[in-house]
Specification:
Layout lengths: L3 E2 L18 E8 L2 E4 L9 H9 L5 E2 L2 E2 L11 E6 L4 H11 L7 E4 L7 E5 L7 H14 L11 H5 L2 H6 L4 H10 L27 H5 L3 H6 L2
Parallel strand pairs: 1-3
Antiparallel strand pairs: 2-3, 2-6, 4-5, 6-8, 7-8
Helix pairs in contact: 2-3
Length: 223
């Protein structure tokens, strides 16, 4: 499909660490075929945790990312542009295989952009920082595989050599993710980094950095 994509701000306003995977993300507001960027291009998937915070009514600017500026804070799910996708067809098939089968991530081609896709992430994945961190890791992983390799399932991706080489999880984490799937290690929280730092303790502005960095491993390290 042809889209009218407004100019996406550069990532120069963000503070990000290096990332070997070339994939980049941008939140957009979609109105039919017009896509209006609501964030710069970013490579650090921890910014998705900031969106979970916004959906729970907590707003802050972390590392240059203002989570109050996104329409996703008030809407179900979120539209995103992805760029630097190495192999589109393999990526789409792999993503279909690793996502929750009852909550599919929608993918649309952008005809005139050979390495770019438009995706819609349902609200299910924004229920807590565990789910969105796991999903975005898998999205990144799908872009690390080369043609003609295609992931055929959730467990295969998590036990793949690319996952192991990423050093993202310990083996015991992978075993538990395979066993429990998308169920967060600690239930009833939208973010959880131990008894001192979680969504049921008193909120302090300085905790924004903790929320930002609350990925899958944070949930396991203290569970």
């Amino acid at each position: 499909m042809q889209f009218n994509i407004k100019t996406v701000p550069s990532s120069s306003s963000l503070t990000e660490t290096g990332q070997s995977n070339p994939i980049r993300f941008c939140f957009v507001k979609r109105e039919d075929t017009t896509l209006t960027p609501e964030s710069p291009w970013f490579k650090c998937k921890d910014y998705f945790n900031d969106v979970v915070a916004a959906k729970n009514g907590l707003f802050f600017v972390q590392y240059g990312f203002d989570n109050s500026k996104l329409s996703a804070k008030d809407e179900q799910g979120a539209w995103l542009l992805l760029k630097e996708i190495k192999y589109k067809e393999e990526f789409k098939k792999s993503l279909q295989a690793v996502q929750h089968e009852e909550h599919p991530v929608l993918v649309e081609d952008i005809d005139d952009k050979p390495t770019m896709l438009l995706i819609y992430i349902p609200e299910f994945y924004f229920e807590n920082t565990y789910k969105i961190s796991l999903l975005t890791f898998l999205i990144r992983l799908c872009n690390e595989i080369g043609s003609p390799t295609i992931f055929t399932g959730f467990e295969q991706a998590l036990r793949s050599s690319n996952c192991v080489m990423s050093n993202m999880f310990y083996q015991r984490h992978i075993d538990r993710i395979v066993k429990d799937g998308w169920k967060a290690p600690v239930e009833g929280y939208w973010w959880w980094c131990g008894n001192m730092y979680n969504s049921k303790t008193t909120w302090y502005p300085e905790h924004s950095r903790t929320v930002h960095n609350c990925g899958v491993k944070s949930w396991f390290m203290y569970a």
